[in-house]
Design a protein that fits this description.
The structure is a homodimer. Chain A is of the alpha/beta class and about 325 residues long. In chain A, strands 1-2-3-4-5-6-7-8 form an eight-stranded parallel barrel, surrounded by six helices. In chain A, helix 2 runs antiparallel to helix 9, helix 6 packs parallel to helix 7 and helix 10 runs parallel beside helix 12. Chain A is globular, with a radius of gyration of 19 Å. Chains A, B: Keywords: Manganese.
Chain lengths: ~325, ~325
């Protein structure tokens, strides 16, 4: 029976690292792992497995952006029930960095891609599958993909060895009905695959969309503790463990992590619902303009920001 | 057609006053009224119409707690399209304070009550209806009412002159399925009444529950700007005007109000999702213990707070 219940994948370190440039202490990551394990959380995504050779600014980021197996073994000396996962991006991962699973701390490798890159993503999935890993394929920015392109991508994915295919609401722009629409489409075109959901909270719908997905049979639910994730953040892990109908989930260890580590973290770094992220979510746009605004002196100039995004004449084309 | 579309009732001043003891400037309230009117919001609940004679601590609260018609005429010299509403509580209102509607700034009087007090609420509704007002009856704390008591209450309400009956999620403890359950029950037992919803955001479900209600034909949607309301606050007005399918609603004037007034207000007063409110929501309890915690030096002691509410032995009975 328990195999039919949805699993929680906590991506506090991976998606939260987009907030603080992966400035997480080893102590925090170790405590988070133990806390998530005690809470019954199924997977912890402990970072990216991209290659520093393929990314600019690599030397400024914390180690969680370029996971190294020796380092991981030091931080997490003992694997518990919670499995470990890492995300890779198309074109930023060097497949030679990926050890066979038998020699690695990682259980699951997730490949993030846009629908247009699905062929490249499938190639990576095949390699990781071959090396013994569980795999997922996370299709980003679904709200901006044309229907025929998505259909084609899902038809390609159907025959690849991936275990789970994710519905990713990158812009936090999808409401319940739209999530339901994607679930039905994915179910129809991928009858042989499990589904996952990764929601963002720009319109305060991340938890609600994730609960709906769980009801509709989506098997993998992404979340992060205290909602920590890029811009408006993710579905909150504490809300999932408190509300999913599975006796193994416990809220108390997650509260303990928030109390000991994340209240202070939230004082130093900003994430979660705020007006610029709500605006980009509503307009179905990438949050990058809102993130830039929040980092500027104009961070609370909401009306100007809204005008820039909605009135074309405010931003004329550059002169020659 | 537009009569079939849901209406927004903004209760920033009334429910938000529970955050700051109604410490709103006249300038803010006037600007809010003009902004809501420009945004197309249908009603603005401008406070309570309780009697200071019937409440302790009355002299410390701002004027919005005990609305006086002469004062209202000064603050809002010109009525625009947005109607004005006030809330009264059972046992705290002196019916002699209520002018006939023709002499009053108010259009709508809402009666808040628990299911057990519905007979008293109906008596008040009859008086206000008689004096020419639109009326609503807001049944609070629905998650704590026994089924037979609620059925009986709704059967009594069916034959009274009230225009709208509200589903109130006082503790922010209801999820989408539970809201849907109440909507179906209310529809069945009150086929002749319009319905309303007032949601709290303890589990980040206020907007989602309100959207769902709108889809299911609920006609009156409560919200507050920037979510300002007691404890975890309400469904955000900015999310409703940005997402409801009604061309008259405009987001920009609401952004303007937030930018000019509410960012600073939020720096001085706390409301919205946080962990203690999430805990009381999850446990289906009144937020008063969480509000007390947030006002104490232990405001971030989440684990102790959770233990107190869930482990009976932590709080032994008082000795004689």
């Amino acid at each position: 029976m328990s195999d039919n219940l949805p699993k929680i994948l906590d991506c506090t370190i991976r998606d939260g690292g987009l907030v603080n440039n992966w400035d997480f202490s080893e102590e925090f990551v170790r405590n988070l792992y133990e806390g998530l394990n005690e809470a019954g959380v199924d997977y912890m995504e402990i970072g990216y497995k991209n290659s520093p050779k393929l990314l600019k600014g690599a030397d400024e980021a914390g180690p969680w952006r370029f996971l190294n197996d020796d380092f991981l073994k030091k931080v997490i000396p003992q694997k518990l029930n919670t499995k470990l996962s890492a995300l890779v991006d198309i074109g930023r991962v060097d497949e030679n960095d990926i050890l066979p699973r038998s020699e690695s701390m990682l259980d699951l490798i997730r490949v993030a891609c846009y629908a247009r890159d699905v062929d490249k993503a499938i190639r990576l999935v095949e390699i990781f599958h071959e090396r013994g890993y569980e795999t997922t394929l996370n299709i980003m920015a679904l709200s901006n993909v044309m229907e025929n392109e998505l259909t084609e991508a899902l038809e390609q994915i159907k025959d690849c060895p991936v275990d789970v295919v994710y519905i990713v609401d990158s812009f936090g722009s999808l409401n319940n009905s739209e999530i339901e629409y994607f679930i039905e489409k994915f179910k129809k075109l991928l009858p042989n695959k499990k589904l996952g959901i990764h929601a963002h909270n720009n319109m305060q719908l991340a938890f609600s969309n994730t609960l709906l997905a769980a009801e509709k049979g989506v098997a993998y639910l992404d979340s992060s503790v205290y909602g920590m994730g890029r811009a408006a953040g993710n579905c909150n892990t504490e809300l999932l463990v408190a509300n999913l109908k599975n006796p193994k989930y416990k809220l108390r260890p997650v509260l303990d992590i928030i109390e000991r580590f994340m209240v202070e973290m939230r004082e130093n770094w900003e994430w979660g619902y705020n007006i610029p992220y709500m605006i980009t979510g509503t307009l179905d746009e990438h949050p990058r303009t809102a993130m830039a605004l929040r980092g500027s002196a104009d961070k609370d100039k909401y009306v100007d920001f809204y005008d820039q995004l909605t009135l074309p004449e405010v931003s004329p084309q550059a002169k020659k």
